[in-house]
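Bench log. Compound arrived from synthesis this morning; before running ITC I wanted a structural hypothesis for how S-adenosylmethionine sits in the protein. Inputs:
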Amino acid sequence: MVINMNYNHMEKVDHWNNVYAKKPGKNVGWYEENPTLSLEFIDACDLETDATIFVAGAGTTNLVPHLLKKGFKNIIANDISPIALETLASNLGPDAQKINFVVDDLTNPKALTEMDAVDLWVDRAVLHFFLEENEIAAYFNLLKDKVKVGGYVLIATFSKEGAKKCTGLPILPYSPEELQKWLGDDFSFLKNEYITHFMPSGDERPYHYGLYKRK
Ligand SMILES: C[S@@+](CC[C@H](N)C(=O)[O-])C[C@H]1O[C@@H](n2cnc3c(N)ncnc32)[C@H](O)[C@@H]1O
């Protein structure tokens, strides 16, 4: 096993472990009972149930049990926070055995570099936490290394007019043009949507969802 002991990395792990330890379950601002829009976009990909789906920065998302309900058999749930993935596993109960959990940093991947290629990469509310050019580049390098030709990428970030912080951390919002620029010419734009997510507090968080296909 490769363990990432870099200091900056450990700070990030502590931050997210604390978030999940202090605000369990439905209390996190990004909680969705039904990840309706993600599921709608995933349906549009028309994947076979043996397709490999990579959920980047999964946290405790209900997307994972919904994907299991749809019959998907090869789901990889990643997060930098072991507490997040332990909570997700405990929420899933016996179904947790069906998921491949990978604790790793998307901006400095170790275990993830060994992952097989995937048919779909899903990221909701993760990419926008990466502020440094080298972190963002590392994330997209991993994505480009792992998404199969003909595979899909669904990325949801805070939109440009949205909040500038989340969990006390600054975020970097994306326009569709900026996302396409990072993805490059190998990825075709399929569709996008702007939605407002309502936090448990009632506060609004405008998001942009973009779906792309690898040529
Ligand atoms: C706002 S939450 C979104 C969680 C989930 N995607 C959802 O929609 O419910 C951001 C997630 O990204 C994870 N995360 C933050 N930085 C990460 C990194 N460098 N590598 C992997 N996961 C990371 C956090 O631990 C957290 O679970």
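What the model suggests: Residues 12, 16, 30, 57-59, 61, 78-81, 84, 105-107, 124-126, 129, 166 surround S-adenosylmethionine (CB under 6 Å). The two ends are 34 Å apart (CA to CA).
ITC booked for Thursday regardless.
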